[in-house]
Amino acid sequence: MIASRSPIFSLFILINIFVSTPLYASIYDVDQNDIEDALTDGLLILRHEFGIDGANLTDGALAPNAALTNPESIASYINDRSLLFDLDGNRSNDALTDGLLLLRYLFGLSGDSLIQDALGPGATRNNYAEIKAHIDLSNQREFKSIKRGITYGMGGGQPALSMDDLGVLSGGLKWWYNWRRTPNNSIESSYSKDGFDFVPMAWGRNFSDAEIRSFLNGHPHVKYLLGFNEPNFQSQANMTPAEAAAEWPRLEAIAQEYGLKLVSPAVNFSPGGVDIPGTEDDGSPWAYLDAFFEECDGCQVDYIAVHGYMRSANAFKAYVEKFERYGKPIWVTEWAAIDGGGAPNLQSQMSFLSDTTRWLESNDSVFRYSWFIARSRQGYGQAPFNDILMDNGTLSPLGEIYTSIPSNDYPYIPEEIIEAEGAHQIQGFVYDQVPAGQTEDFSQSEVSITSQNNSAYVEYKIYIEFAGNYHLNLRLSSLTTNTLKVDLNNRNLWSLNLWNTTSGDPWKTFSSDGVFLDKGNHVVRVYSDGEFAFNWFKISKTSIN
To answer: Is residue 226 over pLDDT 90?
Structure first.
């Protein structure tokens, strides 16, 4: 039997997580092999900024396990991030300045050695500290989360995942799986362009070793292999713990051959049809894993995979925490509010996703997580309202929330629209769907949040690179007359008298006078002494009104 949770196990989990993954992805890892390297990534960027393209761009400049190898895709990747590759901040990308600065940085130079004779005319970043801060900020902002993923299946007539779908998910999540060995053919050669990882799965005992090896031979950047899908369910992989353990060496052989980490069989509460020796509780996911580990003593299992479908966010959190007993980082590879208490509605699913996603993101025991599901068999707009995507390349309201939630160290910056639902902290709000057309002035989101009491608040972490006067702009709707306040680092920055905006256009954009913001990291809190709805927030050099 596995020992219960202890401080030693918790420390072990933290060590596993921090040794095995960076805190955030690097945008300067151009060939997407998870390593910044001067002789590959630096050379690719320098060649591109010199105007070199085609095979001459990539010849001799790709790492052996590069995920992005097509010259056009690499050029597109760099072009899409042109502002971030402008290291000296003069609004121009130049090989002899920005390219040289980045090459020196990737070679490990710092201080004056980095910037000597490498700053362009009009540079706004003039020393090593400013350039290093820009590099760190750019890396932090490449993905809202590198833990977050999605499940995507094609059973039941759903269309294949498309590059348009990945486009709207880009930046909001990092990875996906589809219960199969490979992604669908239409995106297999191009999904790495937006920085996505695909994780293959050996679904059950009849998986093809040869097909997995074939995929890995063509995709040397793959790092993980998912084990059997719900083997404690007769309707899924349907394997006793002993049967799963007997097949596990096949996965180990693949993992050792390709340098992969293995994720355990994914378990959930089951109807109990699969026999677990030594217990009458055949429906227990822990009883199944305990028996599996007894049968597979010494096997390579690097992570624990968990599924959960309870309706209560608190019950879900307590459930996931119980898997810490195994002393391994956790992958929550399926979860949504589905089981128990009748069908959920869209609003309750929004609140559940928001609460649990923020918890998973901040939980150091959780290595990765993926919502169930991108597109359901029922279709968007049908219970249980868990679709992340609607039509091709279109996020559902639930998807807007899922892709907006930031990691704890993700900073917002001036001049970007910050969706209200993308708060770092949110307390006392419910989610609503805004009628189409009412927020199209700036935001593409049709989701708003509405305060429920006078203790409700939202917080956003922001980074100001250049100190100066800025305007605060908020898109609001109010049913009452009340006072809305905006605090900066626990100090009141702006108080706004709201009134009933329901006549005519119920949504209005309010802008502050100029307020001085120092350079550095800040926390903005928005709250009120009455009910209000909130759609988006922006810090800008000029007033929107």
So the answer is: yes
- Average pLDDT for 400-405: 98
Task: Let me know: does 303 contact 263? Beta carbons within 8 Å.
Answer: yes
Helical ranges in 21-85 per DSSP H: 43-49, 55-58, 71-80, 82-85
Residues 151-196: pLDDT tens digits? 998 777 788 999 999 999 999 999 999 999 999 988 998 898 888 9
DSSP percent split of the chain into helix, strand, coil, nearest 5:
30, 20, 45
What's the whole-model pTM score?
Answer: 0.92
What are the backbone dihedrals phi and psi of residue 306, each rounded to the nearest 5 degrees, phi first? -130, 140
Least confident of 291-300, 441-450, 535-544: 441-450
**Largest Cα span, the chain:** 75
Inter-residue contact 501 to 476 (CB < 8 Å): yes
- Classify 366 as helix, strand or coil: strand
Report residue 209: phi and psi, to 5°.
-60, -40
User: Could you give the CA distance from residue 282 to residue 376 in angstroms, rounded to a whole number?
Assistant: 29
H or E, element range at 258: helix 241-258
Tens-digit pLDDT profile for residues 464-519: 999 999 999 999 998 888 999 999 999 999 999 988 776 666 888 999 999 999 99
Domains defined for the chain, CATH in brackets: 1-25+143-199+303-405 (no CATH), 26-140 (no CATH), 418-540 (2.60.120.260)
Structure confidence at residue 502 (pLDDT): 66
Cα–Cα distance for residue pair 264/306, rounded to 1 Å: 9
Span 338-342, average pLDDT: 84
CA 18-167-461 angle, to 5 degrees, is: 50
Token code pair at residue 520? 């550095």
CA nearest 42: which of 95, 81, 113, 79?
Answer: 95
Q: How far apart are CA 262 and CA 305, in angstroms?
A: 10
Residue keyed to tokens 């003039």: 126
Distance CA 383, CA 343 (A): 6
